[in-house]
Amino acid sequence: GENVEQHPSTLSVQEGDSAVIKCTYSDSASNYFPWYKQELGKRPQLIIDIRSNVGEKKDQRIAVTLNKTAKHFSLHITETQPEDSAVYFCAAPRGYALNFGKGTSLLVTP
Amino acid sequence: EAQVTQNPRYLITVTGKKLTVTCSQNMNHEYMSWYRQDPGLGLRQIYYSMNVEVTDKGDVPEGYKVSRKEKRNFPLILESPSPNQTSLYFCASSHQWDTQYFGPGTRLTVL
Lengths: 110, 111
Description:
Chain A is mostly beta strands. Chain A is built from no helices and eleven strands.
């Protein structure tokens, strides 16, 4: 069943602004939280992930933060560019599987 | 090149005609999985396999079958496809279950 909620479902920002997407999960034992990017007509691709022993992870313009107490994690994209336009999915474990959020469609306008 | 492949990439079929979508990976991954993607519903897991001869149901297994006779292959079988199985299907593989690598997708239309 669903244990991951993702917000917002759509997000429009101007080039250069920051974008934040948030996910909440229900299983307090969850220990791995990936983010996938899916461009139009393409497969989902992992862009960043975080494990529960750290609170934040950065990779250039992308960062993920984790709040285990509140059971939520967020994707932060800074200095957005038009090529960041895509659908982003978060996921959280459910046993030996991943439950995905319903996705956020990000549009970066020049 | 490390990859996950699926075939066919596109398929149009009719209700009740059995079909198989193949999935193969060359990364020696133990874990493989099938998802379907529908607008507004995200990625939903159909079946997964932890290793050869070990499979388990995901969230939406009804109407699907899988088998894992070899480590590299994980075919998805629709014995009697129905229009509500029209969807975009993704196969994925992983060393364990966490970091999953997706295939290119198979767009299936059932008339």
